[in-house]
Amino acid sequence: EKNGYAHFMLKEIYEQPRAVRDTLRGRISAASGHIELPGLDLSHDEIVHAERILIASCGTSWHAGLVGKFLLERMVRIPVEVDYASEFRYRRPIMRSRDIGLLISQSGETADTLAAQLEMIAGDIPTLSICNVVDAALTRKARGSITTNAGPEIGVASTKAFTAQIAALLTLSLYFAQCRKTMPQEAVQSILRELEVLPKAMEEALRTSAPVCARLAKIFSNATDVLFLGRGIHYPIALEGALKLKEISYIHAEGYPAGEMKHGPNALIDETLPVVCLATKDGDDPDSVLKYEKTLSNIQEVTARGGRVIAIVVEGDTAVSSLVEHTITIPRASEALLPILETVPLQLLAYFIAVEKGCDVDQPRNLAKSVTVE
Ligand code: F6R
């Protein structure tokens, strides 16, 4: 039941710290630096000699796949391709013997994702699943799997399954990085330490952003279009923010890489257009800082044209708040962990806007929780 929450979606948004904690539990230990993924069922040699990872998934799970690409390529230096599962087989995908297939799905029953898995099996590559349902069709056919322990997700819009999928992808990336020695053990351990306290940081993000999102929802519920911008690993989160908003509030929303704005979408900006910008940074990571600075100039391009910016920033940021109308603050974290934290306010923003508009949050029109047709 809803445990006193108005909707399952809200309950599930608030369950995320627990969902992430349960997904990491027993798999990571910061003290020993040990990572354990016994369900993976890949030999050390297969991991060390893997040449490519092919990810296929749908919707929100596809966004998790895109985050996974950034994590795996950065930490493991292995090339990763991410496909919509519904597109995978229609491009006659090239598969080689040292490729590994990775299917991501909350339900484990999505027809397109199962079809992509069959294609991979026919291509003779091992498949792994990241799935929230034990013993789903996807897991049964996969060679190895990581279960996200988010618990049953009832709201049609995926929330806790998504952040749990990213937690699983972080664990997988660190595990591969250890096996392939692509990161110094101290760096692995430092992220493990941060992961252990991530649920606390998520609680903090919920606590501080909920009232702000509720207030912003009143201001922006009349919007007809909303843009979401992000760069690098934050770009898939922009896509996810847009998907959440459109599916439950029926407002047209698009996620865009921040740097692409000047190649077309800038033409859309006027005083009526809310633009949600992911402007977080990890001050210890030069790549993250560079990306942040570029995003700052993208924000200036939007405000100069009268666009109404809502920026997601980390605690202590003053540069952005002096530029924009509204900011939502999340706790500081390493770049790899920011996607999970910045997802929280985007979910809440979509939720409160949908409630403001009187939409059926848990059962949006035309959508099903599990899509079992191709
Ligand atoms: C969006 C949403 C859908 C699902 C998609 C894949 O909030 O829930 O986009 O993510 O239908 O479903 P799974 O993950 O069950 O394969």
From TrEMBL:
Task: Give the principal location in a single coarse category.
Answer: cytoplasm
Molecular function via GO: carbohydrate derivative binding; glutamine-fructose-6-phosphate transaminase (isomerizing) activity
Its annotated compartments are: Cytoplasm
Active-site residues, Swiss-Prot/TrEMBL: K369 (for fru-6p isomerization activity)
Write down the chemical reaction(s) this protein catalyses.
Answer: D-fructose 6-phosphate + L-glutamine = D-glucosamine 6-phosphate + L-glutamate
Q: SIS domain spans which residues? A: 43-182, 216-364
Coiled coil (residue ranges): none
Q: What class of enzyme is it?
A: transferase
One Gene Ontology cellular component term attached to this UniProt record is: cytosol
Q: Which GO terms describe its biological process?
A: amino sugar biosynthetic process; carbohydrate metabolic process; fructose 6-phosphate metabolic process; protein N-linked glycosylation; UDP-N-acetylglucosamine metabolic process
Question: What keywords does the record list, in alphabetical order?
Answer: Aminotransferase, Cytoplasm, Glutamine amidotransferase, Repeat, Transferase
Could you tell me the EC number(s) of this protein? 2.6.1.16
Complex formation:
Homodimer.
Its biological purpose: Catalyzes the first step in hexosamine metabolism, converting fructose-6P into glucosamine-6P using glutamine as a nitrogen source.
Q: What is this protein called?
A: Glutamine--fructose-6-phosphate aminotransferase [isomerizing]
* UniProt source species: Terriglobus roseus (strain DSM 18391 / NRRL B-41598 / KBS 63)
Gene this protein is translated from = glmS
Q: Which part of the complete protein is shown?
A: 256 to 629 of 629
